Amino acid sequence: MSLILSLETSVDSCSVALHENGRLLHEELIKEPQAHATKLALLIQVSFQKINRSMRELKAVAITSGPGSYTGLRIGTSTAKGLCFSLNIPLLSVNTLELLIYQASFQNPQNAMLCAMIDARRMEVYSMLANSDRTIVNDTVAEIIEDQSYHSILENQKILFFGNGAVKCKDVINHPNAIFLEDQLPLASFLGELASNKFMSNQFEDLVHFEPFYLKEFLVKKSTKPLF
C-alpha cells in the first residue's frame, strides 16, 4: 500500500490530497490568496481525519516544485521536507507547468497544442508548451507576452492556453486558433496521480539538497516608513 500526501502551493490557491496506489482518497482545496502559511497544516490534518488514517502510514510526500509563488513554494517545500525527515519517507516533486498540462489534456477535445502559463506579474509569465499528447515542445521559460507571441505556431495549428498566467494574455494573443481554458488551477488531486507514477519508479528527490524551481528572484520591497 502506497499512501502519498500531495501538496500544491505554487499559486494563490492551496490544495492537499491523499492517494493510495494512485487512487484519490480525499482532497482539500482553499481559494484564499496567501493562506498557505495559516491553512496548509490544517488542510493536511483535516484530510487525514476525513479518511480516518494516520500520518505514520505515509509512504511519501509530493509537492509541486515550481515555477510559481516564491512564498507558497517555500512553505510547501518546508512542510513536505519536515514530514519526510520526521517520518523517514521520500520526497517527490512535479513541475507545476507539467501538472497543468496533464490536467488540461483531459479537457482538449480539439487536440490542440497545450500551453501552460503561470503569472509572473505585469505581462510576464512562466510557460511550457506541449503537443496534445503531453510531449514537451518548449520547456519552462519566463517570457514577456506581446501581440505576436505564439503567432508563428497559431498560423498552422490551435493552441489551448490555460493557467492563471493565461487570463491576462487573452486580450493580447488575439488569433482565431488561440483557445483559452478558464479557471485552470494546479490541483493536488492530479499531482498525486503523477506522483504515484514517480513513486513506483523510485524517482525520489534528494531530501537534503532539494530546492523549489525559481525563475525569478524574490524581490523584497523597501519600507517607506521612517525608522524612528
UniProtKB/TrEMBL annotation:
<dbReference type="GO" id="GO:0016740">
    <property type="term" value="F:transferase activity"/>
</dbReference>
<dbReference type="GO" id="GO:0002949">
    <property type="term" value="P:tRNA threonylcarbamoyladenosine modification"/>
</dbReference>
<dbReference type="GO" id="GO:0005829">
    <property type="term" value="C:cytosol"/>
</dbReference>
<dbReference type="InterPro" id="IPR043129">
    <property type="entry name" value="ATPase_NBD"/>
</dbReference>
<dbReference type="InterPro" id="IPR000905">
    <property type="entry name" value="Gcp-like_dom"/>
</dbReference>
<keyword id="KW-0808">Transferase</keyword>
<dbReference type="Pfam" id="PF00814">
    <property type="entry name" value="TsaD"/>
</dbReference>
<dbReference type="InterPro" id="IPR022496">
    <property type="entry name" value="T6A_TsaB"/>
</dbReference>
<protein>
    <submittedName>
        <fullName>tRNA (Adenosine(37)-N6)-threonylcarbamoyltransferase complex dimerization subunit type 1 TsaB</fullName>
    </submittedName>
</protein>
<feature type="domain" description="Gcp-like">
    <location>
        <begin position="34"/>
        <end position="148"/>
    </location>
</feature>
